[in-house]
Amino acid sequence: MTTIPRLGALALACACLSARAGDVEVLHWWTSGGEAKAAAELKATMQKKGHVWKDFAVAGGGGDSAMTVLKSRVVSGNAPAAAQIKGPSIQEWAREGVLANMDTLAKAEKWDELLPKAIADGLKYKGSYVAAPVNVHRVNWIWANPEALKKAGAKLPTTWDEFFVAAEALKKAGIIPVAHGGQNWQDFTTFESVALGVGGADFYKKALVQLDAATLQGPTMLKVLETFKKVKGYTDKNAPGRDWNLATAMVIKGEAGMQLMGDWAKGEFVAAGKVPGKDFVCAAAPGTAKSFTYNVDSFALFQLKNTANQKAQQDLASAILSPEFQESFNLNKGSIPVRLGLKLDKFDDCAKLSAADFVATAKTGALVPSIAHGMAVPSATEGAIKDVVSQFWNDDKMSPAQAQGRLVTAARTK
Ligand code: GAL
Fold first, then answer.
1. What is the largest CA-CA distance in the chain?
2. What is the pTM of this model?
3. Is the beta carbon of 28 within 6 A of some atom in ligand 1?
4. I need a surface site. Which of 28, 50, 385, 404 has the fewest CB within 10 A?
5. Separation of 62 CA from ligand 1 center, angstroms?
6. Alpha carbon nearest to ligand 1 atom 11, residue
7. Rounded to whole angstroms, what are the CA distances from 241 to 141, 229, 249, 346, 396?
8. Gap between the Cα atoms of 22 and 84, Å rounded
């Protein structure tokens, strides 16, 4: 007689526990040194809440492979709890009717007050939150090894003219001027920084956000393409196929002088124990000091059936925006917090510059979405333009004028 109530209590306790602990499967592509450390922060946060972390990492910088895998999982009715999805793709997934409405949580935690409005709007579908943001990456950066610059008698460039002077000096000193990984998204990342630097923020918006045909066909775009192709002359012959973090490692080791890359590169320097301002230096990409290409990593949340998993998903979304997580994650990731009003005491000068420029450029209209990182145009259009940019980078027989013609056509892709 006495064992039955005891067993009953035990069963009840187990039921409570399993109602609280859920599985949280998260798709991302954070597999490099700095990225993996940042992802580990998320895992630890969820485990502390008692949930089971199911890592769904699909390697491949920029996330193209991850997106392909995600599509097949969702189509087969087996979506993860959350997936790293950004920009207009959030709307594309929401239109499929597969994302969860997070408004109850967002209202309770006042997301509208915690986030810059322009960013919050992109996380909503028909006025309801369907994704939670983790950070703000700046894409228009140049990273350099100060020792290598010194050896070459070069200085960190602030204009494209200075860039080529520095590149020439590095080359003469026997150092690879530009660390590059020849993968289409890296070519595209370089391209957008050249476009911003050569043409300015208004040109960038017209050409690469509004896809204005006249601007795409105009003389400024021709100059952008010429400048972009000139950069290639300062990369090494082993660049094709190289991962971005291996390119960063070349700058870390002083084999290469400079890298044009978003501030996830800083995560690599930091993970290698390097100190900003001493072992490596950062600056806005040439000609872009007064503009900012933003790339906001966010997690879109998929509809789930299991209530314990739904609870875990809510906890994930809530944790992502907590001040503690925003700090620890972004210190590792190289980005800055997306949540407004947080202290940046623990962040380095590159992050502080990023935060100041984010606010300043939002006021002047020079805060622009990164096309290379899925923030500016629909994914099909982005893919078509990215292909042309890479073909031009790789095919030395294609003239800038030919590339320009193809760009105009690609921009019409819907
Ligand atoms: C970006 C992403 C970053 C970083 C980078 C390289 O698209 O937003 O978080 O992971 O790719 O993988």
1. 90
2. 0.94
3. no
4. 50
5. 5
6. 62
7. 21, 18, 15, 35, 17
8. 20
Q: Residue 35: CB within 6 Å of ligand 1?
A: yes
329 lines ligand 1 (CB under 6 A): no
- 63: Cβ below 6 Å to ligand 1? yes
CATH superfamily of 23-135+296-350: Periplasmic binding protein-like II (3.40.190.10)
399 and 201 Cβ atoms separated by less than 8 Å:
no
**By three-state DSSP, how is residue 217 classified?**
helix
Q: Between the CA of residue 331 and those of 45, 164, 288, what are the distances in Å?
A: 15, 32, 24
CA of 36 to the centre of ligand 1 (A): 12
CATH, domain range 138-294+356-410: 3.40.190.10
Do 23-135+296-350 and 138-294+356-410 show the same overall fold? yes
Name the residue at shortest CA distance from atom 8 of ligand 1. 297
Question: What 3-state class would DSSP assign to 132?
Answer: strand
pLDDT at 275 (0 to 100): 97
Of all protein residues, the one whose alpha carbon is nearest to atom 5 of ligand 1 is 62
Say yes or no: CB of residue 62 within 6 Å of ligand 1: yes
pLDDT in tens, 226-247: 999 999 999 999 999 999 999 9
pLDDT mean across residues, the chain: 95
- Nearby residues of 204 by Cβ (< 8 Å), 6 or more positions away: 192, 195, 196, 291, 293, 368
